[in-house]
Amino acid sequence: MNKVYDCVILGAGPGGLSAGIYSGRNRLDTLLIEQGQVGGQIALTAEIENYPGQSLFGETGITLSERMRDQADQFGVERVTDCIEKVELAGDVKVLYGKNETYQARAVILATGAYPRPIGCKGEGRFVGSGVSYCATCDGAFFTDLEVYVVGGGDSAVEEAIFLTQYARKVTIVHRRDELRAAKSIQEKAFANPKIAFLWDSVVEELKGDDVLNAMTVRNVKTGVLTEIRADEQDGMFGVFGFLGTIPRTTLFEGQLTLENGYIVTDEDMKTNIEGVFAVGDVRKKKLRQVVTAAADGAVAAMEVFSFLQER
Ligand code: NAP
Description:
This protein has 312 residues and is of the alpha/beta class. The protein folds into two domains: 178 residues, FAD/NAD(P)-binding domain, CATH 3.50.50; 118 residues, FAD/NAD(P)-binding domain (3-Layer(bba) Sandwich). The protein is 22% helix and 29% strand. The protein contains six helices and 19 strands. The strands form five sheets. Strands 1, 2, 3, 4, 5, 6 and 19 form a seven-stranded mixed sheet that branches. A five-stranded parallel sheet has the order 8-15-9-10-11, covered by helices on one side. It has a three-stranded antiparallel sheet with strand order 12-13-14, with no helix packed on it. Helix 1 packs parallel to helix 2 and helix 1 runs parallel beside helix 6. The protein is elongated. Bound molecules: NADP nicotinamide-adenine-dinucleotide phosphate (NAP). The site of NADP nicotinamide-adenine-dinucleotide phosphate has 22 residues, from helix 4.
């Protein structure tokens, strides 16, 4: 593609969509590239309860991001589905090489987000899709009337455990400490839910089974005791959902951008170490990774792109 856009945004989670809304509104010639569905990680979230101004009832990650997408469309943002395999960020014209096309822009906003951290136990890879999942919204219904185990103790783990109780007979949260990291309001809901149990100070050592997951070994980190958990005979299987935080998607930028623990380092205007390259949302080094902070990053970056292009 010979066209040079004013601004190419890579990733259509809340950060990228918000950048799109602001960039389109500034009448910049803007392209938003996404490799899958819009929404990024919130597309995997069953319930959003803390985004200001959201619908109070029945707001899911999907409904919220679809409205953000429609808003970006309204401001004339072009959208394309492609998988970017290589980027050249240093020059005045930034080049992104996709599987289908090559894209050029005078400024880019990187909003590639992050992906779920694996549980990291033996056997995990074997059972992805046959007992192991990282998305309750996608796979919860497969475990109707069965038992499920949720690994992790943060907001995601506890919220998704609550969500899973609408399908599963019992949900056990397996957490490596004896207190949860999740916000108190979310914890309260989980403690009050009779279908949720807790396995404290515990980590999953191994997942086992023949065709499907039906046993696992859990280690108590304080006592070292190993416990074998087996599926109920009538069930024949159980589910394990991993919610242990995320890993940033930055492999493409290694050697070009300054990274810290894999996250892109920016200043408070979302500027990276390369002129004309901005980063927003969960892929950026920062403290609070929320929809609201990703959306704020997107707005700041798009306004900075506008100033940057005007100065040129
Ligand atoms: P998180 O807050 O980083 O929590 C990850 C959890 O996994 C922690 O409980 C951690 O244990 C555990 N963990 C990490 N590595 C582990 C390992 N190797 N073995 C065993 N356990 C491990 O991740 P998150 O829950 O996905 O949340 C990410 C961000 O999104 C947070 O800022 C969160 O507030 C936000 N979020 C917000 C909402 C909401 O407000 N509705 C919903 C979802 C996510 P420790 O506690 O011991 O460290």
